[in-house]
Amino acid sequence: MRTFALVTASGAALLTAGTPAPVTLAVAGDPDPVVAAPAPRPVLPAVPLALVARVHQAPARAHRSGPPPARARDGKGTEVGAADLLAKVSACEQVSKGRYRTDEAAPPTVPVCGAGGAVFWKADLDIDCDGRATAACNAATDPSFHGDTAFHASDGRPLNAAELPYVVVPAPSGTWDYAKSGIRGGGVVAVVHGGKVEYAVVGDVGPERIIGEASYATAKSLGIDPDPSSGGAPSGVTYILFKDSRVSPIEDHEAAVRTGRALAGEFVRDSRSTS
């Protein structure tokens, strides 16, 4: 029996097979068969039976979460904060013909000032809960509640003071007319208090002689007590209204923040001091 062996490169036998030996060969016309001697055993080269393919591994990709949110920056790329905005409005060139009261019983001490492409004033913050009735803002929580706002949302309903940061401007009068200064409903406002900046919109119109009022949501975002009966801030709030700006729809707060940050950056680097 002739035995054939198939081995791996390491010499391990994998398969054997046998054939009878010797091999008898019969030739036609020859009475005597010829017995052939066994053929010499061929030397088989070692054949690797298994081949291992190298698996290609792509390098791990860095996780991308998208570009960072837009932030107000000055011309040098530095982020604009509360201190930068307050430095820009440190001096007042009065654009109003008179001054406003912070409350009905208070003396008129607050002027409307101009600076670059904005107007501003420094006052208190009374809570405006007017507009759409919610759990936070309604006739039970606010004795002065009024179910409407001067400017409406895109669906025609009053604004939601509990959710939308907005600012109240005084009604037009001989003292000052906000529209003539390029301010309108949906205009962007930077409200600064306690080292924080909240970007809001012009959302309501108040009395002719009173200034310093913002929505429940504005106060809450600035860390001010938003309770319409007992909350608010007695002073230290700066309102910067950017001229000829407008967010549409007015209730899109994210758009107000993006626009506000961009306008704040332009405002801080604007070389003009007044308007």
Automatic annotation (TrEMBL):
<keyword id="KW-0119">Carbohydrate metabolism</keyword>
<dbReference type="Pfam" id="PF07335">
    <property type="entry name" value="Glyco_hydro_75"/>
</dbReference>
<dbReference type="GO" id="GO:0016787">
    <property type="term" value="F:hydrolase activity"/>
</dbReference>
<keyword id="KW-0378">Hydrolase</keyword>
<protein>
    <submittedName>
        <fullName>Glycoside hydrolase family 75 protein</fullName>
    </submittedName>
</protein>
<keyword id="KW-0732">Signal</keyword>
<dbReference type="InterPro" id="IPR009939">
    <property type="entry name" value="Chitosanase_fungal"/>
</dbReference>
<keyword id="KW-0964">Secreted</keyword>
<keyword id="KW-0326">Glycosidase</keyword>
<keyword id="KW-0624">Polysaccharide degradation</keyword>
